[in-house]
């Protein structure tokens, strides 16, 4: 019997060998795999791919801006730290002369040569930044030792040209490279798209410099990392974290030098090494701290027998320590000052007034402490004395290392803020004597000589009171005349006296006449400033006061330099540029004088 014929199944071949039938997929109607679900899955995958692409794009753009912001922030902070490190050697004003020009030059050089640097260097340019940063303290240290040769005119330029300029240039080049990948909005005109990275980067840098630099100055000295060298090391570490590489092995010599040999590092070992080096010139640093107004230190001369307080590249005062409790000085209430001008300020008590001011009833306000020579004398006379000093370290050192008595009222605050607040209070304290004695950095703090500030002092002075204003400046320049005009516009009766007569030989040769001038003024419009002769009690058993207390070298009209359009009018708070532009010349002259007062080594080693 022939076998029964079976019905071919889909997809099988016929027995006769004919072509197989086309396969028709069998879809289970109960299955989830349907054309609709398949299409939905495809759309989901597409959305996921698009989402991942957008996330990648945003991440990439964020990295570009974050890296650019990090480099700009670091160099902005370094800009301030660089200036802080130059100020003890050159003073703040000479240090700033070339600073902004170097920053601009570095930005331009880096921005315009970024492509060349990327082609020439066998590694990414940012790998150089940690090495450059870690060697900055080393270069500053060695160049500081030859600052007397470099001078205040060229020393800051050379130092920052070898330290800050390379950092700025490489940083700008790296930022330019990063921002080439920035995707700016397409609706912006092409010229804006081309200019925006550069302008935006510079704007961010200036903002960071203001914020971060301000914070660095405000908190300086509060820890080792907040000191000048400490911040440089912290910045070098930040660069290393941002751009790590095998090149960092070459940073080891610089780190060892800074840790073991750099006397600027604020450690006990560094101070001991500093004093070892100063033995040859006969000086010793008793203490030092970095603070609001600069690098503050107390320096002794055991051989000569005097002690001074230094702030950056100027001296705040000094006294003879070899006379303490010796011979005729035994039991003295005050120390012997080494500068006569500080004794002259005490002549504020010698000015004749309509009604006699009794010491035990008098109140005095002293603006600017220094080592405390004037307030110490006022306290010795039984006068209730308030001292306004912006720098807490200056007050601390005056108490610890000099003869400032503790029985005074200390106000650690900016004098402009304090006097403005007190003057606005009609029931606030008023004073019989005001002594205005401020100077640092090679020039006067301009806000403390403006018409507005002096008007506040006028409001704080009692009708029968006397004010003494010390101004240190170069009488070969217009500022002393401008300041004098401003003081006379507020106080109707004034007389001015120099610390010493003009040195005609130096004036003729160098066109320089740097001196201290003290102006004594009263509020009496019909009065004339006259002095009584000092008695023994006024002199406080002090030879310095015997020689300098009574004002002698009166300033005449012909002593002032007359410059057309420069020496007229008064100094207002919104017009301080009138004095700022002369600061450079005055500070340069002051730098030269300071280098003759103390040996170069004292200034260079700090």
Automatic annotation (TrEMBL):
Keywords: Polyamine biosynthesis. Residues 1-35 are annotated as: Disordered. Residues 10-21 have a biased composition (Low complexity). The keyword Metal-binding does not apply. It holds the Pfam family Spermine_synth. The keyword Oxidoreductase does not apply. This is Spermine/spermidine synthase.
